[in-house]
Structures
1.
Amino acid sequence: MAKKTKKGKKAELLEKREWAMVEGILEGSPDGIGVVVVRLDCGCRKMAAVSKEGEPASKIIMYRDNAESICDKCKDDQGDYMRIVTQFIHWKDPEPNQEKKNSISLKVMGATETVTH
Ligand SMILES: [Zn+2]
């Protein structure tokens, strides 16, 4: 029987491919203190760096795993928020304090982090 390994580290909320994207975005966004990661019901992803003021610090990047482009649905509605499955902010090290995180989350996503892990 295969044993499930359980790791409780927050960073592992990110999937491997998402990691690569997030790191690329942070590298290209010196003002970014984190990256908003949005997973859509169709499997596409939407990401953008956010500044410490809670403003966009990069352009919004949309992509789809193993595909040349995003799906037709997303081309149509640009990843409408109605179709969001999960969204959270991956913070760059060192992470801002909780208060700051909450206020940025609120500004960017209209809610505090909803991750329940
Ligand atoms: Zn899509």
2.
Amino acid sequence: MTSTLWCQKAATYLHRLCVDIPAPWPEPGRASQSPGRSGREGGRRVGSQGNRAATDLFAAAVASFGFDTQSLPFDCVDWSHDGADLSVAGALFEAFPSPYSLGCRVRAPLLVVSTPAELEAADLSGRIVMLRGEIATEQLMPKNFPFYNPDHHRRIIYLLETKVPQAIIAATSRDLQGVGGIYPFPLFEDGDFDIPSVYMTEEEGNRLAERAGQEISLHSRARRIPATGCNVIARKGRQAASDMRLGKHPAQGTDRDRRVVLFAHIDARIGSPGANDNASGVVALLLLAELLADYHGSLGIEIVAMNGEDYFSNPGEQQYVALNAGRFDEIVLGINLDDIGYHKGSIAYSLYDCPAGMADSIRRLFSAHQRMIEGEPWYQGDHGLFLINHTPALAVTSELLPELMAEITHTAKDTVEIVDPVKLVTVALALRDLVLHLDRATA
Ligand SMILES: [Zn+2]
């Protein structure tokens, strides 16, 4: 097949994942300008209809290329909202429900808190609290997030849950590291945190702070919806096939279950079409699966559509880690594809704890492909699962990731127009070379 045909395949997959699939919100809502409700809302957020359509598409495609494929379900919550009304003595303020927050209809005096020390000292009962300034500079990690949760975040959550305000208003600007290019960013994005909250811009927060002590009324029309999602795990190779015949779970092989594992997260951030983040990685895995349709090597290949990287509790990641507890040493190399197709700049790969010989081979194989360079290591991706389990890892992303994070990632701007299908084909071909090399090297 010519590379033009592969590029067409890549473009078709991308379109299906980002344009055809996006499902409506689970309830008919008025069109609104608030974040997450504009344009092609819905996308592939975990728990949504679009997310299930994406995992179904992935599972059907990889199965058609001869992979033993399983969709492993988990419970989650989807979320819907229809905006929020906030007013003080007839004056209106613009606020948005925090993703995954409960809704509320409350009336109480406003208390403004700017620092952790002020929060420690504050009496919040019977109040609506506004968090702004120093205490609202970075998104707080979800309370049950298992992989990273700094003490100062936990302390803020603990104090709020102990002091029980009626509701929380967060006035924020940007958090490029934690959230990407969203302005304002939601301080809370946590379906396990039960104090209703909304967020607003810093400017709106300054205006509202002048009303401290006055009675304000807040009506947030948000609701949580019980839902399910799944990881898709697809396997090929001699050992994987024999495991399947023995009825073993794909992630519970034997000591000889040596395999290369490839991740791409298939979910998208709420409110974003998620074309580069991360339909791009998913499409590369689909192309790779087809390139390996005739693979019969002895090294197992495991391709995973990971579901939850951009969701508050990382349910797919938690499921994968639980399934593989004590078995990460069977993984010869873990590969994560995330944000790989930005049309500007090159494709950037980075290596983590790879044995010297393997690292040399990867560099040699990848140098044969155009616009693939070795970039800076980064740690905010699913390859972190390999690192914390002491497994050699390779991550592939876009060279200009910082530029993407500042302006595009996690926003409505992450559309198919910013993704170059040629880069997705390049990554698939480079990974095919690598997988075949690893099979020979580990035989
Ligand atoms: Zn991502």
3.
Amino acid sequence: MKYTSSLVTLLCATSIHAQGPKWATPPKLVVGIVVDQMRPDYIYRYWDNFGDGGFKRLVNQGAFLRDAHYTYVPTITGPGHASIFTGSIPAFHGIVENYRYDRTSRSTIYCVLDTTVHGVGSDMRRSPSQLLATTLADEIERRTDRKGKTIGIALKDRSSILSIGRTGDAAYWFNSNGSFVTSSWYMDSLPAWVKQFNAQQLADSYLKHPWEPLLPIERYHQVLPDENPYEQPLVPGGKAFFPYNLAVLSGGPAGLGLIVSTPWGNTLSTDMALAAMAGEGLGTDAITDLLTISYGSTDELGHKVGPRAVELEDMYIRLDQELARLLVELDKGVGVGKYTLFLTADHGVIDVPQYLKDLRGSAGYLDIADAREAINTALAKSSTAADSVLYMRRGEIFFSEHQGSSLNVYELAESIRIVNDVLSQDLAVAMVMPSPLNDIFSGGPSMISDAVRNGHMAQRSGDVQYVLRPGFIESRSGDTSGTEHSAGWNYDTHVPVLFFGQGIAPGEVVRRTAVADIVPTLTMIIGCALPDASVGEVVHEVIAR
Ligand SMILES: [Zn+2]
């Protein structure tokens, strides 16, 4: 039998060869999966609790880039999704923050806010108008003369919108009233299949059940008991250990929005993705379609409980089942080997710093309110510096004017010097860097200074950047439970990248690669143009030839 099957393979290979190059027969469907806040070591740590059809199938039958990184800061959701799908960096695609500070309005602007559009299914005004480079969806639309269908699904609005971009067909996201919605940027009314999906009220029915561990508790890789001081509750004032009575918790102010912090936020995302496949007929003809799915619950829960929690492992064991379910449906609907899939994450995350501190690791917090006050006090003492700091968060500082007029180059330099003097007194701060255009302090070690530059866009970023030391995060009013991401250190930059399906040569790649390499690699399989600002390189090892 073995001989026969290899003979069949040989004959197939020969006949495909006779039809021309592989890229002339592109996959019928490309599936891009983003797990929000996933570290590669979750695959190692949870491996023995995974089933055969999810992560293990992707690793065993696909290609695994084991040392793939983001090359910019801040490593957060908006910039992450934009960078994955443009194959680029914030300096070029323009999504430098989830909420960036705007000097003119003296307020923050959400990365997918657009007051010129209206919500479809909700009153949220959202669009990709702040994204300044093409995505994989844009290039598939171009390659297929707009006949390919390109659809994004996510819990978070920014995750679906920035995965698809400006000229793709649709981005749908979860509205806390329990339904999936979109923007007039893409369409004027929801398609019938979305209305039917929403009418099932799945979020409501999932929240009727309690959340208990899927496996016997001794099978989890816990280094801490389920109840510990490093975790935050699912809802304010609640408890942070099993079981969670979701029916009661969702009866409070959280409402149906509670689902995003539970494994069923991921279930709902798979449900919606499968509804999109059926409703739009994705992958059913020879024209390449794109489906993007961002699993957002891993981030919502991850912030609250951190990487060592039993709850988080339970969520990943259930996500593994979701992936298996998705793959089975793709096999049925599109065909085994007829689609190309990748999975990555928009950023990693650090352990709860207080936990690391208690282990006597080098870790801790920078209290942003205190730091800002200290800088303001020092600025006030100078007659040639900014009057004050307008905004300070996540590595960015924006200065005010000096006595009513904008800062000249000397006043800017003096203001930056003062920030450097104040912040470098705190061990939590590794370095202070001026904006690249005001490069009077030379940058510091290359990995981090490159990351700051790659994440910086003159029109949208601050006057001076500061970088915290590994292990440190900005504290939220002294809270030492829960955790955060955004740094240029490995715990936030290092993410898994898995390729699977048509055109993919299975195996492991252990050399250092970049998340920006994913899309250029896919364009070689699809046979379409590179996105405008793509900076990655093709990972040649994973291309089947
Ligand atoms: Zn997050």
